[in-house]
Structures are given as structure tokens and as C-alpha cells.
Known about the structure:
By secondary structure, the chain is an alpha+beta fold. The chain has 2 helices and 4 strands; from the N terminus they run βαβαββ. It has a 4-stranded mixed β-sheet with strand order 1-2-4-3, with helices on one face. The longest helix is centred in the middle third of the chain and has 13 residues, at 22-34. It starts with 12 loop residues before the first strand and ends with a strand.
Amino acid sequence: xxxxxxxxxxxxxxxxxxDLGCGxxxxxxxxxxxxxxxxxxxxxxxxxxxxxxxxxxxxxxxxHTLIAQQPPEYHIRRKEN
Length: 81
């Protein structure tokens, strides 16, 4: 974080996916978010180069909210239903 940047959201759960590729990453991400309560926030660390495009697109398609993104760190709020 650079000086003056807002603080990252508080995470209810954390997952370091390392270099896990897109297919395996989104499958595991789906399972982890399903295990959380609606509105909770997952802090994801994803170092796969494709994550920069894949994570926002996956959130749009599934209805989860990408509330912060500073690769390799992403904060995703679980959808309400």
C-alpha cells in the first residue's frame, strides 16, 4: 500500500492460492465462498498472471463483489444469496 491509500477491507477469511491456475483457482474459490456467510469478505492472494483478468470477470459472472484489488491481493465479498 502506498501512503494515503485507503486501508484494505477487513477479511473474514484468507486464502493464499499461490500460483494456482484459473480453472483450479475458480473451482476452489467457489467452494471457499460457498462455505462463508453472505456479506463476508475473503482475502485472496493469487499470483497466477491470468488472475488479474480472471478474478474480476469471475466475480461479475457469479454475482460476488470484488471490493478491492491490488495484485496479487484481492478482496471479494460473498453475494447475498
